[in-house]
Write a structure and sequence with these properties.
The structure is a homotrimer of 328-residue chains. Chain A contains four helices and 36 strands. In chain A, the strands form six sheets. The first copy, chain A, has a ten-stranded mixed sheet, with helices on one face. A nine-stranded parallel sheet of chain A has the order 8-11-14-17-22-25-28-31-34, with no helix packed on it. An eight-stranded parallel sheet of chain A has the order 9-12-15-20-23-26-29-32, with no helix packed on it. In chain A, 55% of the residues are buried.
Chain lengths: 328, 328, 328
């Protein structure tokens, strides 16, 4: 779809500086955009690329000025770019509507209007899927789970398999029936190949508007608040409680039965083993406040040198001690 | 299903203290159980919740006494609770029996009596699946694999994909045909989205009664003994040998070609790079005995302070050395 | 299939020392091979097993001599063994040809000759799959992705789900349509339960001849060069650039927007957070040159002892300082 720069400016709420009539038919990065495409500058680090980009227009912060290209000035250039991409390219077009004949929906499940189920999807007994959802190919939703409106779940993800609950007696692990469910609230997106375990009793909850990437494991009875960002390969053990706007980077592990406060951010590969107050920014395994983690890491990578310094000190002190001995 | 407290006590082998006639229709945690439900107390830490729980009866250790609620005294309260949950709620009821018409079973495979295959399951040539198994939706079992009796495999798990075997020659990785298989012994449960690779030659084995959670990767030719507990996102490289009753917490990595002894326990995110004697309890990356790992971690998080102390020592020693110099 | 040792020697390009007429019908490891089977010795560490193996012939390096068994001398015994296994056992035989009736291929997708699609495979709009590929059961390929020739993708893997792209505005995460695709070049093999995200714009690329094991997450717009080896549970964030012949061991994490040079090797569980020059061998989190990482680890596991040494030094220095004080 091609639009004038004027139309695009209006749609994304930007102030236009330059030729309003030029035609824009696509979007790209500073480096990859071609003539006829719009790009964006959100990070001042890439400012120099404004001189070389082949794009025909750039979305920038209000403070940026230049003559080379028409500018679309927006308070939040990245968000404005997102709107531009959506306007130019739209969202995914499905080649069929509703429940694909090769999706399997239990007769007791309900599927909301406007919801698309791809081939190989399985929806179990008594599941409720809301409106305008997309369940991509081979997504599995176990019995009794509840999925809100406008939820997107990517291929091969499993919602509601049994939590890991066993009572060990006499060396044998006896299964505790997992009779709870999973509740995915509105506007959640879950990536591919994830596993969200059903609660032993009660519900495992993914809060409204949270976004999960791929290969994520969520244990039984865990509650994630709204608007969290969970990157690929994160694992959250059972009965953890996450607040809202929690961000967990790739491969983070969160222990069970702990509280992670609102707006907490955790860096990649960290291990969160204790409850964390809101607003914390953590890194490391065990996870520490990021300033501390960075100082620890700086010493850590120089541990052999630190050991050498201790050794040298020991020699010096020994010599000093000898000198210090009273002459016989 | 509702039962009298007397019946429940008999079923779970508990001694009843209180009104035998009250009706129990469900089970819940101390916090979440409602009137008419039974709960349990296994960890003395939660003793105070006995005063506030809404449950109508509590399973406790024989030493616990109280008047507020009827008690079911059992030697192992958690195990007794597991039995109670099973009696009250039963195990999963499938909405169909046997092989679902949308499961695909090769004509040369055999499926035992009482086994349930969900939609999207694929069972390859010459596979044998035992009795009373459940393969949830979209489980894939490659050719020649063997699955015992009463095995549960959750959605989207892959049993028997090729092991990672390549001979690199002239910069090209040449595939070594993986002609072995996977053997899953009786009473194993495997979570969702796991990958158990087939052996190059011989078998990859998951021992009787072992329980695996989600997103676990098991390399080719690895042997896991009976009754292991493997938490989500664990990775075990090829040709590792695990004993019986090994417990690996979340995100643990185990190197290939090593021995992990019986009853070994490894804490979350640890990296086991060498063989480990039986009964060891390990933590950390590289994995260490847990006492050592905790002491190491305690110093680790204070590395900047340790470095400061060394710096101060260096200054003191330098001063002392000056003082110590013979007066000219 | 049974062949004479002479035939086998010719096929694998080895020099025969011993009875050319004996019949070989299979292949096995030194420990597991039976009479009538060929084995190999690539690592001198296992030299003693030549005395005890039940195999009928052994592929060895040219320098090895022995009388007990017929030898097949080859410059690269492991590669020669791979050729032998392939000759004796062949590659996987499928029990059907072409697109299985239970695979779902969009009408606008193209599937090359000789390509096998297993049940439950979903191939979306405008996808191109090359010749002689195998997509195992329940593999999902999203719209517009391109798969080369002779590519193998194992069960439950997802190619082309949306990259993790959101513009956060007013606390809400707004989805940025992911309008790029994934390009899998020729001769790639991808294990089971992997997720390769489509690019936001442009392509995520897996280079020719690269081999990936299981449960691997590749972020949007990442480019992997040819002939890489990526072990299970590796995660590579978005917009990373890997050279050729990069090897990443199990559970490694690679940050986004960095460059990993040609022939780089990274040890298990490492975290690569910065760009890395070619030929580097790294270990640890954060990843360091392997020599440094090993020295750091050696001190790390003895941190409590190092702390004790510092404490002792502090005491000694304090005493020395007292002695050093001028007598009043």
């Amino acid at each position: 779809m091609a639009v004038t720069l004027k139309e695009l400016a209006d749609v994304i709420g930007a102030e236009l500086a330059g030729d309003a009539g030029i035609s824009i038919s696509g979007a790209g990065t500073l480096e990859q955009a071609k003539a006829g495409e719009v790009t964006f500058l959100a990070n001042p680090k890439y400012l120099k690329q404004l001189e070389t980009t082949a794009a025909s227009a750039v979305i920038v912060a209000p403070s940026v000025s230049m003559d080379r290209l028409p500018l679309l000035k927006a308070k939040d250039p990245y968000y404005a770019f997102a709107l531009a991409v959506r306007h130019l390219h739209g969202t995914r077009k499905h080649s069929f509507t509703g429940v694909h004949p090769r999706a399997t929906v239990d007769s007791t499940a309900t599927i909301g209007e406007g919801t698309t189920l791809y081939p190989g999807v399985y929806v179990g007994p008594r599941v409720r899927v809301g409106r305008d959802c997309v369940l991509h190919a081979n997504v599995v939703v176990y019995e009794d789970c509840v999925i809100g409106d406008r939820v997107i779940i990517h291929a091969n993800t499993s919602i509601g398999p049994d939590g890991f609950g066993f009572a060990t007696n006499g060396g044998i692990h006896h299964k505790i029936p997992q009779i709870g469910n999973v509740v995915i609230e509105d506007d959640v997106e879950i990536g591919s190949n994830c596993s969200i375990d059903r609660a032993a009793l009660g519900s495992t909850v993914i809060g409204k508007g949270s976004k999960l990437n791929d290969l994520i494991a969520i244990g039984h009875n865990t509650k994630m608040g709204p608007h969290c960002l969970i990157v690929s390969q994160v694992g959250i053990a059972g009965s953890a409680n996450l607040g809202h706007h929690v961000t967990l980077a790739g491969q983070v592990g969160v222990a069970g039965h702990i509280e992670v406060g609102d707006n907490v951010t955790v860096g990649a590969q960290a291990g969160v083993t204790n409850s964390v107050p809101e607003q914390s920014v953590l890194l490391g395994s065990p996870a520490m406040p990021i300033r501390q983690a960075r100082r620890v890491a700086a010493v850590f990578v120089q541990l052999p040198e630190l050991q050498d310094r201790v050794k040298k000190l020991e020699q010096s002190v020994e010599e000093l001690s000898k000198d210090d001995e009273p002459a016989a």
